[in-house]
C-alpha cells in the first residue's frame, strides 16, 4: 500500500511520484511534499509603496504618473484600480484600468486604499 498523500486539489488517492514532485493522474495537479506540510514558506507577500500587504481583490491607487509602454498615453497619479490580482514576476499586479484596459503594474507604484 502506498504512503503517498491524497491530491490536495481533488482528494484522489492515485497520486504518484515523478522525481521530486507528486502528481495526480486524475486532475493533473503537481505539488511537492514540502508544500503539503505548510504553504506559509512558499507564499510570496506583496506590499505596496507604504508597506501594506496587498491581497487579491484589493483596490489601489497609483502614486505617480506611469508611462504606458508602446503608447503616448500616461496613467495619471491618483488613478483608482479596483479588483487587483496578484501574480508572480517583475510586474506583480494584474488589473484592468478604465480607459486603458488590461495592465500589469509593479506594487512599488501603488498604495492600498
Layout of helices and strands:
Elements: E1 16-18, E2 21-23, E3 30-32, H1 33-37, E4 60-62, E5 66-67, E6 74-75, E7 80-81, E8 85-86, E9 93-97, E10 101-105, E11 110-112
Antiparallel strand pairs: 1-2, 2-3, 4-7, 4-11, 5-6, 8-9, 9-10
3D structure, described in words:
- The chain is mostly beta strands and 113 residues long.
- Helix content is 4%, strand content 29%.
- The strands form 4 sheets. A 3-stranded antiparallel β-sheet has the order 1-2-3.
- A hairpin with a 2-residue loop joins strand 1 (16-18) and strand 2 (21-23).
- It is elongated and about 55 Å long.
- The N and C termini lie far apart (53 Å).
Keywords:
SH3 type barrels; three-stranded antiparallel sheet; 1 helix; Protein YjdM; YjdM
Helix content: under 10%
CATH class of the largest domain: Mainly Beta
The number of E-state strands comes to 11
Q: What order do the SSEs take from the amino end to the carboxyl end, as H and E?
A: EEEHEEEEEEEE
**What topology, given as strand order, has the largest sheet?**
1-2-3
Kindly name the structural category: mainly beta
User: CATH topology of the largest domain, which one?
Assistant: SH3 type barrels
Q: What is the first-to-last residue Cα distance?
A: 53 Å
Number of helices: 1
- Provide the number of structural domains: 2
Q: What is the multimeric organization of the chains shown?
A: single chain
Roughly what fraction of the amino acids lie in strands? 25-35%
Radius of gyration: 19 Å
Largest sheet: 3 strands, antiparallel
Amino acid at each position: 500500500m502506498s504512503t503517498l498523500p491524497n491530491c490536495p486539489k481533488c482528494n484522489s488517492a492515485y497520486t504518484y511520484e515523478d522525481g521530486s514532485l507528486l502528481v495526480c493522474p486524475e486532475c493533473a495537479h503537481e505539488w511537492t511534499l514540502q508544500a503539503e506540510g505548510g504553504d506559509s514558506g512558499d507564499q510570496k507577500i506583496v506590499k505596496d509603496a507604504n508597506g501594506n500587504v496587498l491581497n487579491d481583490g484589493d483596490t489601489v491607487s497609483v502614486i505617480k504618473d506611469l508611462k504606458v509602454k508602446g503608447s503616448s498615453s500616461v496613467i495619471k497619479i491618483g488613478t483608482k484600480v479596483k479588483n487587483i490580482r496578484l501574480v508572480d514576476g517583475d510586474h506583480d499586479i494584474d488589473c484592468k484600468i478604465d480607459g486603458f484596459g488590461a495592465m500589469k503594474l509593479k506594487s512599488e507604484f501603488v498604495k492600498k486604499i
